[in-house]
Design brief:
CATH architecture of the largest domain: Up-down Bundle
Number of domains: 2
Radius of gyration: 17 Å
Strand order of the largest sheet: 2-1-3-4
């Protein structure tokens, strides 16, 4: 197999990448990485010195890439046959990429700030930063709820890269700051995401690790 994804099933950005790869229907191998294991962490850092996943290695083309959006764009451009996550028309593609960045930076990153703060030792927690992250999430929920009045997906009628970003971000964000009862359009959208076979598969693969989630 030419493509190998170095990942962990519980990571939201890895879930985004898995979801996209399943949608593109491109064959790939998986290499699960436990960052708590020194040997596995060192192996990941040889591929990508920043030590973050996901990381994709393409053996055939001798290419190594980090970051979920970059990985999915690369795989679509070089290996996808028919399926697509990025619109072909320029303005729609830009809108899709903007919403992809929104779910990564304004939802996922804010959620991660809240979750990782729980892992800090007593006396070193950032209550001010967490409060700001919660405010950011509330604002983001409002923005997304307004966008999704037209649905059914993040950029309209077609499932896209933006939905790959939204699904795991909202899955975890709803655990730390629930939105299902307060944001009708966002709640309906998240329900549609959860019934998508590719995302159902991602969630099922993460099940054995749910007890590790500190949110």
């Amino acid at each position: 197999m030419s493509l190998t994804l170095h990942y962990h099933p519980l990571s939201s950005f890895c879930q985004k990448t898995l979801l996209g790869l399943y949608e593109l229907a491109v064959p790939f191998d998986k290499q699960l990485v436990d960052l708590g294991n020194e040997v596995e962490r060192a192996a990941l850092m040889k591929l990508w010195p920043m030590g973050r996943f996901p990381v994709l290695h393409d053996d055939e083309r001798n290419v190594t890439l980090p970051e979920s959006s970059v990985i999915l764009a690369y795989v679509e451009g070089h290996y996808a046959r028919g399926n697509s996550l990025l619109p072909r028309e320029l303005d729609r593609a830009i809108d899709c990429q903007a919403r992809d960045r929104f779910f990564d930076l304004d939802v996922n990153a804010a959620m991660q700030k809240i979750v990782t703060d729980k892992l800090r030792p007593e006396g070193r927690r950032d209550s001010f930063g967490v409060e700001r992250a919660r405010d950011q999430l509330e604002t983001a929920y409002g923005v997304a709820d307004d966008w999704l009045r037209g649905g059914p997906w993040a950029t309209g009628e077609t499932f896209s890269l933006a939905d790959c970003a939204a699904a795991p971000a909202l899955l975890y964000a709803n655990q730390v700051l629930p939105f299902m009862n307060a944001r009708r359009h966002l709640a309906a959208y998240f329900t549609r995401l959860c019934t998508r076979p590719s995302f159902a598969r991602v969630r099922e693969e993460a099940k054995p690790y749910w007890s590790l989630f500190p949110g």
